[in-house]
Here is the input.
Amino acid sequence: MTDHCVLVIDDDTVVRESIAAYLQSTGFRTLEAENGEQGLQVFRENNPDLILCDLSMPVMDGLTMLSKVRSESISFPFIVVSGVGVMDDVVRALHLGASDFLTKPIADLEVLEYAINRALEKAQLLMENKRYRDSLDEAINSLKSSLTLLQEDQKAGRQVQMNMLPSEPLVFENFRIDHNVIPSLYLSGDFVDYFALNDHSFAFYLADVSGHGASSAFVTVLLKHMSMSLLEDYEANGRKSRVKPSHVLSYLNTNLLKTGLGKHVTVFGGIINTRSQTLTYSFGGHFPLPVISENDSVRFLEGKGLPVGLFEEAEYEDITIDLPTRFSLTILSDGILEVIPRKSLQEKEDYLLAVIKEGSGTVAALTESLGLGEDQEAPDDISMLVLTRS
Here is the structure.
């Protein structure tokens, strides 16, 4: 069921009421108006989520109504309805920013429902993208204006980084992905992110920028900016192109080299596809290797790749595996290796496998099992992503 409200504007009472009745039967709330002037008043007083408007009406026609709505809200979802003989008006409506158009008579009302849902989804996407851009612009402006201060004030730089991290876990069908970043004594460059790509896949990555200080923190802002730019390009293309983690790493590698900052990044990125039930991932010099746990067995994922931003000729490989019915995938930054109470690298890796095998299937459980806390004093950030499927 949906809680969206649709304003139906049509001077034909029978058409208007039949459309409203159908939408109500499918879970929408509806408002009605018989012309543009009345519709504009209802729009301003009731704040609906979408307008469905006939173009040819007395008092105020649909084009005038659309123009007035656009002057108040540039991206408000507005679908126009016209007779077959007035396609010129449809073209004008689209130029004015109409979300979609339908022709009378509407023989299949399911087509109308589909058009409304599509327009609402597009409006939601535009709103989310604006929020992302505003948040990113705010972070970039904050970091630029504070670069001098960051040399003396580690806390300010850390706050900028923390503000760009996901605010909550991502739940996608029966998958859940969550994170924890435990800051080091020095300003560093660990960063994690995850987001939906479409209705059947989502992406995630963990990145660790080399070195410490303001320049490393600034690279995390660049990473966020570049990943969001790729996501916006993908959405602008109608989500039709196939996203490959290796292509993303190549893009980051090229653009990071262009900055001339002398910084490189180790990255592990993956995409879950719920239709094919697969995980496709790519390594960019990431270590330690991610750990996949299934039933009573744990193992490191296989793969290798050069760090991002270090070599112009670097190439990255996609690896695809079938997903178990139930599993957890644990990804850690190399800061964890510095606090594990073991001497050799082999002992540290064995310790990690043992801890995860004992049942650390959540971020909170893993943090506790590894003996970590927010007051952890370490020379490097400790970041973790835990992906589970129940």
